[in-house]
Amino acid sequence: MHITIFGTGYVGLVTGACLAQSGNHVVCVDIDEDKIARLTRGEIPIYEPGLEQIVHDNVRSGRLRFTTDAAEAVAHGTLQFIAVGTPPDEDGSADLQYVLKVASTIGAHMDDYRLVITKSTVPVGTADKVREALGQAVRERGVDIEFDVASNPEFLKEGAAVEDFMKPDRVVVGVDSDRAAEHLRALYAPFNRQHDRTIIMDIRSAELTKYAANIVLATKISLMNELSQVADRVDADIEQVRKAIGADHRIGYHFIYPGCGFGGSCFPKDVRALAQTAGKLGYDTEIINAVERVNDRQKQVLFEKLAAHFGDLSGKTIALWGLAFKPNTDDMREAPSCTLMQALWEAGARVRAYDPEAMKETRRIYGERDDLLLCETAEQAVEDADALVLVTEWHIFRTPDFADIARRMRQPVLVDGRNIYKPSYVAQAGFTYYGIGRSAASGATRHVV
Ligand code: UDX
Fold first, then answer.
1. What is the architecture, at CATH level 2, of domain 2-201?
2. Global confidence as pTM
3. Is the dihedral of CA 204, 205, 211, 212 positive or negative?
4. Catalytic residues
5. Quick one: which atom of ligand 1 is closest to the CA of 121?
6. Each residue's pLDDT tens digit, 77-119
7. Beta strands in 130-192 (DSSP E)
8. Cα 129 from chain centroid (whole Å)
9. Ligand 1 geometric centre to CA of 157 (Å)
10. Between the CA of residue 28 and those of 9, 39, 76, what are the distances in Å?
11. What residues does substrate bind to (predicted)?
């Protein structure tokens, strides 16, 4: 099939590359000339495992092209995906101007039938607006050309996006015509393993499905984070609680890891956006608002543990392991590390940090500052530090030589923001250990009421 993708951001690029990989002829279009030039040279602007290889392979085979020419892009694909950004407005609602601009562009250039599919995460009802903008652009030309609109939300995890696209749990397709359904069924047929993964539904339900999935997942995390706060206060170990509740199939082991708050480009934004959508329609969401509040609070937990240990943090040096919002990405959007660094700087502390992929991004965001030293290795980061905080659970941080780390530090204090270490093992190396909701495991002796 001939496919056009508007937007070469994270979602657009992964979608374009993976659809080319399954045999389609794909054109990716973006208004950013520099980005298109770099992509054409084979430079991938984001770090995503496996992506570079499939972009290279498919560019070489001629199935994947990049352009800034919208007219050429509209002429190419029968299926036109909109995967441009929907940045949050001041009130947290998604800003649709870029999505609707693309719809008008398609309407201004198309010469025969087009199926226009929103891939970006957009509020419920956006497909209707896309239809309107497109229809208006077509009518303004005094022509009458048929088109369909559809919603096909993505469920890609950063760091595993290629894998998620190639082996989806499900493909959600929202349509209002058989013609659109058949096009999308055919497009995704190569990704069905053993059984049909495509779930066809009406457009608004598909739009809501994306938010619903992310909010259920975000809720699981905030609920566990809240339970971890309780565990700390009653001297229980949330990790033992987690293993025991996960054994109940109705709860399950996935996404019940307590930590230092969820970040990234999806969960925080989607939680806010759905609350906004409901609010505008006169429904005040309660659980969804609480998910956000609990998460904001949880992002303070690392600083609170340091402050509780040291009292005054001014003049202290704190080592951070991990800056990206999660492993296998260089994405720093809404990362707990940012909240921690800001709080430390406000308290007069200095930060030494190391992340396997996000150093460049951290430098871009914070620039040169006296109270931030970006280190070349994990070992360098702990040199003369008063405490070490594990913020992102990258694989390389999992089994450090704790005795060596302790020798390098001024004081062996460890705050484990992801509960990846065994408290008794770390304690053997001389560390004072603080986990998330693990006061019992750390041997705390607080009085229980
Ligand atoms: C998420 C969804 O998983 C994906 O389906 C959607 O399309 C986009 O949003 P992503 O943001 O890449 O993907 O990250 P994900 O792996 O889901 O993690 C989100 C955040 O939750 C991270 O900050 C992670 O550290 C945190 N998390 C996850 C926890 O704190 N505990 C958990 O048990 C799981």
1. 3-Layer(aba) Sandwich (3.40)
2. 0.92
3. positive
4. 266
5. 7
6. 999 999 999 887 887 777 899 999 999 999 999 999 999 999 9
7. 147-151, 171-174
8. 26
9. 7
10. 10, 10, 10
11. 155-158, 210, 255-259, 263, 326
